[in-house]
Amino acid sequence: MTVSSESAAFESGPYHELEVLRIVEETDDARSIVLNIPEALRELYTYEAGQFLTFRITVDDHPLVRCYSLASCPETESEHKVTVKRVDEGRASNWFHDVLKAGDRLQVMKPAGNFCLADRGTPIVLFAGGSGITPVISLAKTALAKTDRSLLLVYANRDAKSVIFDQELRELEARYGERVQLVHRHDDRDGFLEVEAARSWVTKFAREADFYVCGPGPYMDVVERALESEGVTADRIFIERFVSPEIEALDQKAPHAESDAGARVIIRLDGAETEVIVGDGETILEAAHRAGLDAPCACLEGYCGACVAQVESGRVEMRVNDGGVDEDQAREGWVLTCQGELRSAKAKIVYPDPD
């Protein structure tokens, strides 16, 4: 990440150039990218199952930042593998599918994320929908390799052809036998998952298991309602939400009316300065997107560091900082704009210049 000379010490999540070793076509619309981690970066790119990598790419002269979960197992696999599912009109996912090839080099941040295994000996119940299987299979492989925990995986897809990692899942069943129970749900055969069906798998483990959920919003809503109805406590529920920054930006374009009232922030991005009115309860990133600025973002939850910017004047407070910036960087004025709210009438923030 290139930053201004006076803030060159910022290192919350520098991008390193990594080579694409190979690409694996998992399904018609999902492919895995296997990365080569040089020996000098091995320690920096050490990860836990369930974490993700943040990528910075350029599409049609526009820098884009996206997070993709690691599907590999840190306990048994030496290579780092992420999986990307093609999204209709998704600028980044289509680039990964149509342009990227083996031998190319990518700008990648170190692993981040909190969707990780709790250090317990209880059973594990995993609910995955579509590409939500990517962090989930990493959790499953790691739990089976390093613990004696049993697991149930409920995996929903449109149809049999949409199942990502089908062969890997079969191999896990064969290798670990009774410790693994795999339930496939296909919308074309079984219909969309409903609360009662989800409850049938929750009930058996409601008082003892840890539950991990990742998938499309409607699927996750159903599972969460089932967990709530069975009284599963929050400390045993782990949620990973995939959010498309493109969809998020569209949703945020007009939540607040423009007026002369409200705080104002000058945003310096890609060498240009824009004054934006920030609505009540609105983050800097939301205000930037509403104003039509292509401000970088990825996880939207305060831990990947992709949306970082430096406060030059004024006061900004973060709702959440889950590791995106450390204490030293925060003292230097770095904030996560997806979590940053203005606490002064005026402010100026500066995004790092792209390479």
The low-confidence parts are 1-13, 246-260
Q: Look at the structure and give the CATH class of the largest domain.
A: Alpha Beta
Summarize the main sheet: 6 strands, antiparallel
Average per-residue pLDDT, rounded, comes to: 88
Structurally, the number of domains stands at 3
- Please give the order of strands in the largest beta sheet: 4-3-6-1-2-5
Shape: globular
What is the succession of H and E elements?
A: EEEEEHEEHEHEHHEHEHEEHEEHEEE
What's the arrangement of secondary structure elements?
Elements: E1 16-27, E2 30-36, E3 52-59, E4 62-69, E5 80-85, H1 91-98, E6 105-108, E7 124-129, H2 133-146, E8 151-157, H3 166-176, E9 180-186, H4 187-190, H5 195-202, E10 210-215, H6 217-229, E11 237-241, H7 245-251, E12 263-269, E13 272-278, H8 284-290, E14 308-313, E15 316-318, H9 327-331, E16 334-336, E17 340-342, E18 346-350
Parallel strand pairs: 7-8, 7-10, 8-9, 10-11, 12-18
Antiparallel strand pairs: 1-2, 1-6, 2-5, 3-4, 3-6, 12-13, 14-16, 14-18, 15-17
Report on the architecture of this protein.
This protein is of the alpha/beta class. The protein folds into 3 domains: 104 residues, Elongation Factor Tu (Ef-tu), domain 3, CATH 2.40.30.10; 118 residues, Rossmann fold (3-Layer(aba) Sandwich); 105 residues, Beta-grasp domain (Ubiquitin-like (UB roll), Roll). Helix content is 22%, strand content 31%. The protein is built from 9 helices and 18 strands. The strands form 4 sheets. Strands 4-3-6-1-2-5 form a 6-stranded antiparallel sheet, with helices on one face. A 5-stranded parallel sheet has the order 9-8-7-10-11, sandwiched between helices. Strand 7, helix 2 and strand 8 form a beta-alpha-beta unit. Helix 5 packs across helix 6. The protein is globular and about 60 Å long. The N terminus is likely disordered.
